[in-house]
Write a structure and sequence with these properties.
With 147 residues, the protein is of the alpha+beta class. It is 27% helix and 40% strand. The strands form two sheets. A six-stranded mixed sheet has the order 2-1-8-7-4-3. Strands 5-6 form a two-stranded antiparallel ribbon. GO terms for molecular function: isomerase activity.
């Protein structure tokens, strides 16, 4: 059995190099990425998701804090940091234009690995925290509540 940390480490390194081709290759062809601000359902969509993030934050970096492994599933805690230098989609459908502001947010991911590739990658971070650091005015529409 291969070490399930390897694909996650490759993902971090390619993200920090802003190498979208290498990043896409850390995922299986039919991999799924689910994040607060988007979903990708294959390598191309996943690379597009990360590409949009890197356009908004071209100097962004991922710094690992901890990794917990259970079988083929990994839970990683990390920080993302960078500078807001491009348009970024914010909750509610708005766009935060470049502010030049730095950001630092805590995040975590849950990844499932098969055959040394990531098949499922779920990212969690506080969009409000990121928006506040960017100085974005966040507005949410009232959503129908379950009764």
């Amino acid at each position: 059995m291969s070490d399930p940390r390897r694909p996650l480490e490759r993902l971090r390194k390619t993200f920090n190099r802003h190498d979208l081709d290498g990043l896409a290759e850390t995922f299986s062809p039919g991999a799924v990425l689910v994040a607060p601000d988007g979903v990708g359902q294959d390598r191309d969509e996943i690379a597009s998701y990360y590409g949009a993030f890197l356009e908004a934050f071209p100097d962004s970096r991922c710094t690992p804090q901890s990794v917990t492994i259970s079988g083929d599933t990994l839970v990683a805690e990390y920080t993302l940091s960078g500078t807001h230098k491009g348009a970024y989609l914010i909750p509610g459908g708005g766009v935060a234009e470049a502010t030049g502001r730095p950001f630092l947010v805590r995040a975590c991911s849950v990844s499932t690995v098969e055959n040394d590739l990531i098949v499922s990658h779920r990212i969690f971070y506080d969009q409000l925290e990121l928006g506040a650091q960017l100085g974005a005015s966040l507005q949410f529409e009232e959503q129908e509540r379950w009764v």
